[in-house]
Amino acid sequence: MSAIRPFRALRYDPARVDLARVLVPPYDVIAAEDRARLYARDPHCAIRLELTRDPAEESRTDYAQVRSQLEAWTRDGVLRRDPRPALYGLRQSFTAEGAAPQSRVGFFALLRLEDYAERVVRPHERTLAGPKADRLKLLRASRANLSSVFLLYEDPSDALAPCIDEPGGSPLAEARDEAGTLQRLWAIEDAARVEQVQDFLAKRPLVIADGHHRYETALAYRDERRAAGECAPDAAHEWLLVYLANAFAPGTLLLPIHRLVREAAAPSEAGWRSRLPGWQQRQIRIESAEDVPAALAQHLAPLAARRQLAFAADDGSGTLRIFSRPAGEELSVRVIHREVIEGVFGLDADAVQHGAIEYPKSALQTARDLRRGRGTAALYLNPLSPEDVFRVTEAGEVLPQKSTFFHPKLPTGLVFRTLESDAVDPA
């Protein structure tokens, strides 16, 4: 079902740059106020290939400078293309909040693009029009995959692990990013191991964990090139840079994505009760945004263990409201969108699609944004499980956008892939 192949990555030369200073988070989790800081951190920082310095510039740019930047860095030796095609293994060692140290192992490859209708690559979230238009401009201008789409496969027994695990010797690259995650990269060139990986995945569908907008952008670009007469089955635009990991392996950590209501007014005490009949409510006093993560761990997380639907609402007044009721079979994130985002705040799917909700990268960031006046209320959710995600996609359904956060994020800057004719190599 899924076709993957090795490729010759374009990578930073560690002799020319400090990798820790040029790696950045995925473009969609970089806060607007962090852009200028990352631009200033290093003249070769990967953010210069992904985002404008000022968010206001995005609507005006054609990203032509990105192509020039790639060419200049390659000409100067800052970026070098590896001499032989390979899969690229990656171990991410990290410590999540309140948990013991752990690691996730996956690998980079090229994946043949497939329409969703083929059920080979399956989405689990809806997408937004604005980010796709912006990423399509970038892809047209750069003719490069600058960050990878994160895909999951099902391997409950972790049978594929020996084929992708790290060999002895020094890695190709190693760096600790600013979130504290240690990134360790190696090449998988052995033909037998590569073939085992290909055969294993050929029998299985893949689920997009992160990067729905990038995947759909790649499909749109592929269709543009086909319409222009570039229809060779091995054309570079038929393939996409992806990262693949086992959804059931240790270290595949699924976190919630919280919601910040931008402008709709938060209800009064009576309003909460009248608009959520049948829900139990508790109120918890919090002194500051910094208190929110610990309060959620103490009061919200245990409700998920009892299979109750739960969320927390915070109107910035110092009161955290914990709501719960029996969940049934329907996923909680769907109920919250229907009964809270639409039922309480009056925001339908069209309003959400056009930006009525923001999705900060953590509970702490959500609470801080609320107190800075960037929204009227914050909604904190418990996480889904990998089983939930695969159940939804197997049924051909999707979740509301930004329903999942697989941790740790994949940094941009470990591997790039350009769409020149030699970017797709014979397997």
Q: What report would you give on this structure?
A:
Strands 1, 4, 5, 6, 8, 9, 10, 11 and 12 form a 9-stranded mixed β-sheet that branches. A 6-stranded antiparallel β-sheet has the order 15-17-16-19-14-18, with helices on both faces. It contains 15 helices and 21 strands. The C terminus is likely disordered. Strand 4 and strand 5 form a beta hairpin. The radius of gyration is 22 Å and the shape is globular. Helix 5 crosses helix 8. The protein has 427 residues and is of the alpha+beta class. It has 2 domains: 267 residues, no CATH class; 126 residues, no CATH class.
Summarize the helices and strands and which ones pair or pack.
Blueprint: E1 4-5, E2 10-12, H1 19-22, H2 35-41, H3 47-50, H4 64-75, E3 79-81, E4 87-94, E5 102-112, E6 121-122, H5 129-142, E7 144-145, E8 149-153, H6 161-164, E9 173-176, E10 182-188, H7 191-202, E11 206-210, H8 212-227, E12 239-246, E13 253-255, E14 259-261, H9 269-275, E15 280-285, H10 292-299, H11 301-305, E16 308-314, E17 319-326, H12 332-342, H13 349-353, E18 357-358, H14 363-371, E19 377-381, H15 386-394, E20 405-407, E21 417-418
Parallel strand pairs: 6-11, 8-12
Antiparallel strand pairs: 1-5, 2-3, 4-5, 4-10, 5-12, 7-21, 8-11, 9-10, 13-20, 14-18, 14-19, 15-17, 16-17, 16-19
